[in-house]
Model the fold of this input.
Amino acid sequence: MIEVKNVTKKIGDKVILKNISFNVEDGQFITVLGPNGAGKSTLFKILSLLMKPTSGVIKINGIAVNEGGVALRQKLGVISHNSFLYDSLSARDNLLFYGKMYGVENLEERVREVIQQVGLELSFYQQVKTFSRGMLQRLTIARCLLNDPEIVLFDEPYTGLDQQAIDILNNVLRTLKQRKRTILMITHNFEEGVELSDRILILNRGQLVFDEANLYDLKSLKEIYRKKVGISA
Ligand SMILES: Nc1ncnc2c1ncn2[C@@H]1O[C@H](COP(=O)(O)OP(=O)(O)OP(=O)(O)O)[C@@H](O)[C@H]1O
Done:
C-alpha cells in the first residue's frame, strides 16, 4: 500500500503541490490526470524517490520512503521521460546490466521474456543509440518489468508510441493488473489506459480536486474534468 499524507512541495516561493493526500491499495490501478503544469511530474518524482517533498510523508507498505533504502527502491518500477538506458549498449546488454543490478534470477531467460513482451526481438543486438523514440520507450518498459516490481509508476507512458506499441503497452498494463501489481499512471491523455484504471485522481494547480472510483465512461469523465479543471480534456 502507498500512503501519501499532506504532501506539499515548494520550489523557491512557488507552491507546486499543496497538501496532497491519498492512499493506493495493493493491486489497485490509479490514473492521475491533470493539465500542463498541474504538478503531475513533480508528484511522480516524489513518489519515485527522485525528489523530496517540502513537507508531508509517503509510506510504502508502512515504511516511510526516506527510511526504506535499497529494499524499497527494488519494489518500484519507474517509467518516466528519462529512459535510464545506455546509448552505446545493445538492448540485450542494457537489460543484462539492469538485471544484474537488481539481482534478477535466470537473467538470460527473463531478458528474452521481457524483450518479447515489448516486441523488440528483432532489435535484440542493436545499439540503443540507433533506436527510434518508440523503440526506446518499449525498451524502457522492458527494463521496468525486468525485476517484476510490486509497484509500477508510469509518467506519460504513451508518449511517442505508435498504434502497435500502444497495444503492447495496453497488454503490459492488463498483465500487471491481472498479476495484482499496484499501478500509478500519470497522464493527460484520456484516450489510452484510463479505462483500465480502478480509480481516477485529478490534479489541478497543485491540488487534488477529484478522487473517485472509475465508474465513468470517457464522455462523463471528460465532463467532470472540464468542471474540475475549467478546460476541456
Ligand atoms: N525546478 C523547478 N523550478 C521551478 N518551478 C518548477 C520546477 N519544476 C516544476 N516547476 C513548476 O511546477 C509546476 C508543475 O510542474 P510539473 O512538471 O510537475 O507539471 P505537470 O503536471 O507534470 O505538467 P506537464 O503536463 O506539462 O508535464 C509548473 O508550473 C512548473 O513550472
Observations:
- The longest helix spans residues 163-178.
- Helices lie at 40-47, 65-73, 91-102, 107-117, 133-145, 163-178, 218-229.
- The mean pLDDT is 92.
- Residues 199 and 214 are 5 Å apart (CA to CA).
